[in-house]
């Protein structure tokens, strides 16, 4: 999967909630997309229950102009969520990367395989259980993914999240 497919996320979201009961509190949760949201939560928004969670995922990209594809272990997924009056809302934004060959400042959106999308949503649900339902955080706060994949060094100028200063924590360089 080299291309952004919202329905993949909607399907997995529903599956994890309806079949696996990941948020088993009787509330209705929905997933939406917003391609321009930031990680900023104003005081007002916080009061109204909004929280953000930023996840670092493994994804693949395909250039819209030259069709070159590339993998990245640092694809930022930004989730905004809240629970209010028995209705849960999640708003997701995937961050893009630009093609190294074209250098055209066009950010292509990432594609994912099911396993990596699932992992991201499971982490999100764990956050929601903690912040919206008061459960203990059972995963110890480590965001390291279990599979190490080799990708080329992260190129900050080609990464939309880096440009906005909200890319994944840098463990290797700096
Ligand atoms: Zn290209
Ligand atoms: Zn980045």
Notes on the protein architecture:
The structure is a single chain. This protein is α+β, with helices and mostly antiparallel strands and 174 residues long. 24% of the residues lie in helices and 26% in strands. The chain contains four helices and six strands, in the order αβαβββββαα. It has helices at residues 6-18, 43-47, 114-133, 160-163, and strands at 28-33, 51-62, 69-84, 87-94, 97-98, 107-108. The strands form two sheets. A four-stranded mixed sheet has the order 1-4-3-2, covered by helices on one side. Strands 5-6 form a two-stranded antiparallel ribbon. A hairpin with an 8-residue loop joins strand 5 and strand 6. Helix 1 crosses helix 3. The longest helix has 20 residues, at 114-133. The two termini are 31 Å apart. Bound molecules: zinc ion (ZN) (2 copies).
